[in-house]
């Protein structure tokens, strides 16, 4: 395994982070335990979860993933071996505290205490705001569309002040954001600096060969401010494994089960790009999954690459990608495909 | 003509801004005068130029555009009727102050002195930094690529402090940035706020149907911080007039004369997009030029749309776009073409 510093902290996190969102729906607790055991054995010390999980988000599976992780900590006594990241949900799901804005004191307190309880721990290493309260471009939206009548949302300084309280209480060690845009990213940094409030140490946004929008305006901020990316969906919900090529729909795959929810990657140009990246991988004698994951891990602004798996074979392949090195020629070919078909699945 | 406030100033600038970079190369002084006269008659009160113009940039024509504008001011006595924007070059052109072109106080002083003299005025309404000193993604680069060995550059604080001196002296009224990225945009705002230094009032970046990269990360900052876009290249260097369709190369057109300099719009996908937008315009009884310019005019983050022309016919059509309103249905169709072929020419 390889390791990188998490933002400005002294924490060394593994370049591969174990994603967990399938546990509690596509995966059982026993599957989750097997995945965590294996990942730990392979040197992974970084797990990412969320109160919202398992996915797709449903009221009956809300909190289940955290419970599974908590049970594993209890049974294996491994809490201190893991840098644990979780997230508080943003607005939108009525079974989560009514579905309105979430980033107020009572909302954060409730979410945090419940996460701690499910995770059977008294601290979270990295507590992330899952998505912005304000109207902006995330979850498949390439562009910002201004809405003059947008709902009120909690100001950056008020959110940071609340989070500071829980940092002081020791319940959270560090904070991060997710599904953010350059405006939000910059504002969190600026507000922390001007008001001497906690500084975010990470951004968790999607990043993969079909969606490199992070490079337009976020990557420069990540590098110049030393707040790296935790890349989610490095395989674009499995599309970059190649398993959906040629109109295939493997039984029990995520698209077979939940295609209605995940439309983000089902676009004509997306299919075309997958085929082209597949050809490069074949030529270079590697699997498309290896090439796709290794590309993400190798970007200078990426701190950790959040992989997720349903089967142990997938998990092994994903983690193995850490020893795949892409030569300059491969990177150039990837960039050429990107240039001709940029970000088909933002 | 329609007008908008320039950032948080009380200045009303026309929604169409007269671009001037042809004057002194493709256009003579006489033609420049005719364009300025006509634009003024049509209600345009906003002219944009740069010390580096005419274009393409070369030693022999450097400063010529500003001289033509200065001569027009003397002849027509209209200086105070025009909101005048110019720009100081970034690093590159070696015939300007040795090519170091950095934003040091000394360089800014020399540049402002030269521009005022050529423009035959004692103040500039909007003084812009033409492009960043630092390594980042502008001039056709879609993505930020980090260079760990980038050269030193003047930090934002020192640049703002230097510019403040010239504001205090009355030589410049307001400042703006150009060819910027979200990191630079946010930094200029943050440092101004934190240290009570002058706040930028505009961003001059490319924006057109072939390049809507501004929508991804910049437009949210523009809307929320009230620092609007001065859109340059609204016709994609002429490609969105349709005149280069079907591999045509009109005699004396910019690409005929200087095709090796302007390569940004030559991509295969751009041709396809131009054809798609052309068809959409035709189906709706519009010229492609009208469709392209009216789209830019209509964006909520837009302060002014910088058009340029080499003939009076072009100028008339470009200015006429201010009266073209696009229906929601046309905007939706534009967005559909765009989502299938996003930003072919960043």
Number of β-strand runs of chain A = 10
Kindly report how far apart the N and C termini of chain B lie. 29 Å
- Characterize the biggest β-sheet of chain B: 8 strands, parallel, barrel
Query: Which pair of chains has the greatest number of interface residues, and how are they split between the two chains?
Result: A-B, 38 and 41 residues
Order of secondary-structure elements of chain A: EEEHEHEHEHEHEHHEHHHEHH
Q: What is the number of domains of chain A?
A: 1
> Judging from the principal axes of the Cα atoms, what is the shape of chain A?
globular
Assembly status: heterodimer
CATH class of chain B: Alpha Beta
Mean pLDDT of chain A: 96
The structure class of chain B reads: alpha/beta
Distance between the termini of chain A: 29 Å
Strand content of chain A: 5-15%
Instruction: Tell me the helix content of chain B.
Output: 25-40%
Radius of gyration of chain A: 19 Å
Low-confidence stretches of chain B: none
Number of helices of chain B: 11
Low-confidence sequence ranges of chain A: none
Written account of the structure:
The complex is a heterodimer of chains A (346) and B (346). With 346 residues, chain A is of the alpha/beta class. Chain A has one domain (3-340): TIM Barrel (Alpha-Beta Barrel). Chain A has helices at 29-41, 64-76, 105-119, 156-168, 182-195, 214-217, 219-225, 254-258, 268-283, 288-298, 312-320, 328-340; strands spanning 3-5, 12-14, 16-19, 46-48, 83-88, 124-129, 172-178, 203-206, 229-232, 302-307. Chain A has an eight-stranded parallel beta barrel, surrounded by four helices. A two-stranded antiparallel sheet of chain A has the order 1-2. The radius of gyration of chain A is 19 Å and the shape is globular. Chain B has 346 residues and is α/β, with parallel strands linked by helices. Chain B has a single domain, classed as TIM Barrel (Alpha-Beta Barrel), CATH 3.20.20.100. Helices cover 39% and strands 14% of the residues of chain B. Chain B has eleven helices and ten strands. Chain B has an eight-stranded parallel β-barrel with strand order 3-4-5-6-7-8-9-10, surrounded by five helices. A two-stranded antiparallel sheet of chain B has the order 1-2. In chain B, helix 1 (29-41) packs across helix 2 (64-76), helix 1 (29-41) runs parallel beside helix 10 and helix 5 packs parallel to helix 6 (214-225). Chain B starts with a strand and ends in a 6-residue tail after the last helix. The model of chain B has no long low-confidence stretch (mean pLDDT 96). Classes of the chains: A alpha/beta (346), B alpha/beta (346). At the A-B interface, helix 5, helix 6 and helix 7 of A face helix 5 and helix 6 of B.
């Amino acid at each position: 395994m390889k390791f990188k510093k998490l933002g400005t902290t002294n924490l060394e996190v593994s370049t591969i982070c174990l994603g967990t969102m399938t546990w509690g729906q596509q995966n059982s607790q026993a599957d989750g335990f097997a995945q965590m055991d294996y990942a730990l054995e392979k040197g992974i010390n970084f797990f990412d979860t969320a109160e919202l999980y398992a996915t797709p988000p449903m009221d009956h599976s809300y909190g289940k993933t955290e419970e599974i992780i908590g049970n594993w900590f209890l049974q294996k006594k491994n809490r201190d071996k893991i840098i644990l990241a979780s997230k508080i949900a943003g607005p939108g799901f009525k079974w989560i505290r009514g579905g309105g804005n979430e980033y107020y004191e009572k909302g954060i307190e409730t979410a945090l205490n419940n996460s701690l309880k499910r995770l059977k721990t008294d601290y979270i290493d990295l507590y992330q705001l899952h998505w912005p309260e304000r109207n902006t471009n995330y979850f498949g939206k390439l562009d910002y569309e201004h809405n003059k009548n947008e709902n009120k949302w909690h100001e950056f300084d008020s959110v940071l002040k609340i989070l500071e309280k829980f940092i002081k209480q020791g319940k959270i060690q560090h904070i991060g954001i997710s599904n953010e845009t350059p405006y939000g990213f910059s504002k969190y940094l600026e507000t922390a600096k001007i008001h001497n409030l906690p500084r975010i140490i990470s951004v968790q946004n999607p990043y993969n060969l079909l969606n490199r929008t992070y490079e337009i305006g976020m990557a420069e901020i990540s590098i110049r401010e030393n707040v790296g990316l935790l890349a989610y969906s490095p395989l674009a919900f499995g599309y970059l494994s190649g398993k959906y090529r040629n109109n295939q729909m493997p039984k029990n795959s995520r698209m077979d089960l939940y295609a209605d929810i995940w439309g983000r990657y089902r676009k004509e140009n997306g299919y075309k790009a997958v085929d082209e990246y597949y050809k490069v991988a074949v030529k270079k004698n590697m699997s498309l999954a290896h090439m796709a994951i290794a590309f993400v891990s190798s970007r200078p602004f990426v701190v950790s690459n959040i992989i997720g798996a349903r089967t142990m074979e997938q998990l092994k392949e994903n983690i193995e990608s850490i020893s795949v090195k892409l030569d300059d020629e491969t990177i150039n070919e990837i960039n050429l495909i990107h240039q001709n078909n940029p970000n088909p699945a933002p | 003509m329609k007008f908008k406030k320039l950032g948080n100033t009380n200045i009303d600038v026309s929604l169409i801004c007269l671009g001037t970079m042809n004057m002194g190369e493709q256009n003579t002084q006489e033609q420049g005068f005719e364009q300025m006269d006509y634009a003024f008659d049509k209600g345009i009160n906003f002219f944009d130029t740069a010390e580096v113009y005419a274009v393409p940039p070369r030693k022999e024509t450097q400063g010529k555009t500003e001289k033509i504008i200065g001569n027009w001011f003397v002849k027509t006595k209209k200086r105070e009727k025009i909101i005048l924007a110019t720009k100081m070059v970034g690093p590159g052109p070696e015939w300007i102050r040795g090519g170091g072109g950095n934003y040091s106080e000394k360089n800014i002083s020399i540049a402002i002195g030269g521009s005022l003299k050529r423009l035959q005025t004692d103040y500039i309404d909007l003084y812009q930094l033409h492009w960043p000193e630092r390594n980042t993604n502008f001039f056709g680069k879609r993505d930020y690529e980090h260079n760990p060995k980038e050269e030193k550059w003047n930090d934002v604080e020192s640049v703002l402090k230097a510019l403040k001196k010239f504001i205090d002296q009355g030589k410049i009224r307001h400042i703006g940035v150009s060819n910027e990225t979200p990191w630079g945009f946010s930094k200029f705002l943050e440092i101004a706020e934190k240290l009570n230094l002058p706040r930028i009032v505009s961003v001059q970046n490319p924006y057109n149907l072939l390049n809507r990269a501004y929508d991804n990360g910049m437009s949210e900052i523009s809307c929320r911080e009230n620092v609007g876009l001065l859109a340059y290249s609204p016709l994609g260097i002429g490609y969105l007039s349709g005149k280069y369709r079907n591999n045509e190369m009109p005699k004396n057109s910019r690409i005929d004369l200087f095709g090796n300099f302007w390569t940004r719009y030559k991509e295969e996908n751009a041709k396809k997009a131009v054809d798609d937008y052309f068809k959409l315009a035709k189906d709706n009884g519009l010229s492609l030029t009208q469709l392209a310019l009216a789209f830019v005019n209509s964006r909520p983050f837009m302060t002014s749309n910088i058009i340029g022309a080499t003939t009076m016919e072009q100028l008339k059509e470009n200015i006429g776009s201010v009266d073209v309103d696009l229906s929601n249905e046309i905007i939706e169709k534009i967005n559909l073409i765009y989502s299938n072929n996003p930003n072919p020419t960043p």
